[in-house]
């Protein structure tokens, strides 16, 4: 006898609640159909469901996301970095208190030795016909943030070594729920033939059909749940082994929305508006923002960043502020609307020559007009870099291109190429290769759980009330 096992999954929703009623509709219909046919099916999420760029998530600190997962009938979830490092220790500790599903993450540990009751290293289940399935979850090791928040992420291969042998001995099928990214998933498949399926996320890769490496199939469904993934495993009870492994992703962007879910989200939005409706400051005049020229609000925010971090100087890109603030009462909702990014302050050390190179790169047309997606940035484009504690003198070539003539310190002295300066900026620039000198800095002091919008609120109270 052959038995088919069905697993629907999502990854990297990032609180894209406009799409969620379609997700819920698809999953509820699929689960009902499987139940009607007497087939075994489960629903899985691979993390980054939470994203504090959305006011519903911001107001509830992710609890609303859990309600939506409950409503859609999820069975198993692992955490992504947006659950892990954008919430305070206590908010993550209690995030899944009301979950009707199981959470699995083998490489997450609390540094105070008190593990949350929802945390499972592995999960084992058995189908009605006796097939034993083991799940193990892993998340990306952003320990520079996690350890400041009271957590530690152990290396993914150490976690696998600690659990894979026991799983292999006790279950028939092993499924890895991986918020590690495609390249790590591929390396795991090369090293661990015991793993049958890797359901992935984090790097937002879309695999329309499964990728096979050795004995393992790898699958992932992109980002924002435009696609939903499905894994189909065929178990032969006579041979006592898997005889077929399949995985596909389905475009659901034209799927009809579940009206109950849509109503639920509307009610959540009303509640979020209430929670974020407290007045922060009252403005006599509107505050304008500009992505390519100096604006008082952006300059004062950069000054606040420098003073708050006690850095030698600070630099922030003007694209962080998405919109103007009208005269009148400014609420937390307004501040979140114009600065939705889950971006933390950071201080890095740079030699003077590295600092000058960073400034030069940040004032190029290509940098200012870059339409960045990711690294915490939720805006349209980066915009012009603003500075505090530095005087940057520029001029223009005949072709109109701007260039840096010289960089002076606050006291009027030129930057010393060999001196080390402590520069405050957005943690966005410590990732990737946007500004390589910052990304490669040996010293990075992150400030958590504060976001830049917390400093924006402070700036408005201090300078614009």
TrEMBL record:
The UniProt record lists the keyword Nucleotide-binding: yes
Domain Calcineurin-like phosphoesterase: 10-205
Source organism: Oceanobacillus longus
Sequence ranges assigned to domain 5'-Nucleotidase C-terminal in this UniProt record: 290-428
Protein name as annotated: Bifunctional metallophosphatase/5'-nucleotidase
InterPro entries, per the entry: 5'-Nucleotdase_C (IPR008334), 5'-Nucleotdase_C_sf (IPR036907), 5_nucleotidase/apyrase (IPR006179), Calcineurin-like_PHP (IPR004843), Metallo-depent_PP-like (IPR029052), Pesterase_YunD (IPR011240)
Database matches in CDD domains: MPP_UshA_N_like
Keyword Nucleotide-binding: yes
Keyword field: Hydrolase, Nucleotide-binding, Signal
Family membership: Belongs to the 5'-nucleotidase family.
């Amino acid at each position: 006898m052959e038995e088919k096992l069905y697993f629907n999954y999502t990854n990297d929703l990032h609180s894209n609640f406009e799409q969620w009623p379609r997700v819920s509709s698809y999953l509820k219909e699929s689960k009902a159909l499987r139940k009607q046919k007497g087939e075994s099916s489960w629903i899985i999420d691979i993390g980054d469901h939470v994203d504090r760029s959305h006011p519903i998530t911001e107001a509830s600190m992710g609890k609303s996301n859990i309600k939506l997962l409950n409503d859609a009938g999820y069975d198993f979830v692992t955490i992504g970095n947006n659950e892990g490092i954008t919430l305070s220790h206590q908010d993550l500790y209690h995030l899944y208190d009301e979950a009707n599903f199981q959470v699995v993450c083998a490489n997450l540990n609390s540094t105070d030795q008190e593990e949350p009751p929802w945390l499972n290293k592995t999960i084992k289940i058995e189908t009605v016909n006796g097939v034993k399935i083991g799940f193990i979850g892993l998340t990306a090791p952003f320990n520079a943030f996690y350890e400041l928040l009271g957590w530690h992420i152990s290396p993914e291969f150490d976690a696998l070594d600690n659990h894979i042998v026991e799983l292999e001995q006790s279950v028939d099928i092993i499924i890895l729920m991986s918020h590690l990214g495609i390249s790590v998933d591929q390396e795991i498949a090369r090293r661990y033939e015991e793993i049958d399926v890797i359901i992935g996320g984090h790097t937002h890769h879309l695999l329309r059909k499964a990728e096979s490496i050795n004995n393992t199939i790898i699958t992932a469904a992109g980002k924002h749940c435009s696609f939903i993934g499905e894994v189909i495993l065929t178990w032969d009870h006579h041979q006592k082994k898997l005889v077929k492994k399949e995985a596909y992703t389905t475009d659901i962007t034209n799927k009809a929305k579940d009206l109950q879910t849509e109503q639920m989200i509307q009610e959540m939005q009303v509640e979020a508006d209430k929670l974020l409706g407290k007045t922060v400051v009252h403005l006599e005049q509107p505050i304008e923002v500009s992505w390519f020229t100096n604006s008082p609000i952006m300059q004062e925010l950069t000054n606040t960043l420098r003073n708050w971090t006690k850095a030698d100087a600070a630099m922030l890109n003007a694209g962080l502020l998405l919109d103007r603030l009208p005269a009148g009462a400014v609420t937390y909702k307004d501040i979140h609307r114009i600065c939705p990014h889950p971006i933390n302050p950071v201080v890095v050390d740079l030699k003077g020559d590295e600092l000058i190179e960073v400034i030069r790169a940040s004032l190029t047309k290509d940098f200012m007009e870059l339409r960045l997606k990711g690294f915490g940035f939720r805006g349209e484009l980066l915009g012009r870099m603003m500075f505090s504690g530095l005087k940057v003198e520029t001029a223009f070539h005949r072709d109109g291109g701007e260039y840096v003539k010289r960089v002076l310190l606050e006291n009027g002295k030129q930057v010393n190429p060999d001196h080390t300066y402590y520069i405050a900026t957005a943690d966005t620039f410590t990732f990737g290769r946007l500004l390589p000198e910052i990304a490669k800095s040996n010293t990075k002091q992150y400030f958590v759980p504060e976001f830049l919008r917390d400093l924006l609120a402070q700036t408005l109270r201090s300078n614009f009330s």
